[in-house]
Amino acid sequence: MKYSLVIAVRVTKPRIPENIRANYEAMEAEKTKYFIAIEKAKMLEKEAETIRIQNIIKAKGDAEVSIIVKEKEINEQESKKRIQEIESKIFFFKF
Prior knowledge:
This protein has one helix at residues 18-94. The protein is mostly helical. It is rod-shaped, with a radius of gyration of 41 Å.
């Protein structure tokens, strides 16, 4: 039995009709537009989420500042009250 050795095989490319090729290219272009639209929607969604998170962080920061300011005002009022109590005790002690 003799074996033959195949060194190379040459296959020619088939000729695709023009209308089929144009249709395929149009479908690929629409597919690309579709994927671009999906990615753009995802990007806009991420940007909206980022803005929402930034607004939440800012609101929390503003709330913390507001709490600190109110505590400061309360402490100042309590200090004024103590000073008045001490001054009234001194006044009554003199007489």
